[in-house]
Amino acid sequence: MTAAQNRALDGLLPRYGAPEGVLDLRQLFGREARRTLEIGFGDGETLMELAHLHPGEDYLGIEVHRPGVGRLLMALESEGLENVRVLNADAVQVLETRLPDGSLDALLTYFPDPWPKKRHHKRRLVQPEFTALAARKLKPGGRWHLATDWEDYALHMLTVLSAAPGFTNLSPTGDWVPRPPERPATKFERRGLKLGHRVRDLLFMRQ
User: 123: closest CA among 110, 131, 113?
Assistant: First the structure.
């Protein structure tokens, strides 16, 4: 955590963050618009690019890593972007207690922690319980886009989501989709590619 990131958390989180309690997204963004949530935004690279590309849409990001939150806050101020709001919190807790059902048009989960050791697999975000929670928060027709460079986690996510009530796999082959051009490349993706990992994208629609 740098001094500048600390100052951003103190000075900018009140501006780009959200009040406690259940979120009123219309009030939070000051308008009615298409809304996307990214869980685990890292340093905010993807959120920044999407917000630039789609100024008529609103973006909500959740991240527990404070340095990444600070970096995104500084970037938002520097670029003058007003269509991003940031939560430094646990994603499951936010979805369970603060985000209204049927409030999201899209959910993004890019390169989540793979917890590669078998004894840690239970810590992975994408589990049946979380998938049911995500289904409640998405509008009918809403999409959940996931990506990972860990083959084992990709297969795990495919298995869990394929068995989840309320979701349809948009892959014509029943597994992966080509990387959509609107998904920005991330530093985790670039790191994985340098290591020779194959990146897999999954795209599911809320029925």
Answer: 113
24, 43, 113, 152: which one is catalytic?
113
> Taking the model in full, what pTM does it have?
0.95
What's the CA gap between 17 and 14, in Å, rounded? 5
Output the CA angle 75-86-148, nearest 5 degrees.
Answer: 85
Closest by CA to 36, choosing from 110, 131, 113, is: 110
Distances (CA, A) of 34 to 12, 31, 55, 73, 83: 24, 10, 10, 22, 11
Question: How does residue 191 score in pLDDT terms, banded at 50, 70 and 90?
Answer: confident
User: Could you identify the residue written with the tokens 């920044």?
Assistant: 48
Whether 113 is a known active-site residue: answer yes
Q: Is the dihedral of CA 72, 78, 79, 83 positive or negative?
A: positive
**Within 10 A of 107 (CB to CB), how many other CB atoms are there?**
21
Q: Is the pLDDT of residue 181 over 80?
A: yes
Confidence of residue 23 (pLDDT cuts 50, 70, 90): very high
What residues have CB less than 8 Å from 118, skipping those under 6 apart?
none
Phi, psi of 101 (to 5 degrees): -65, 150
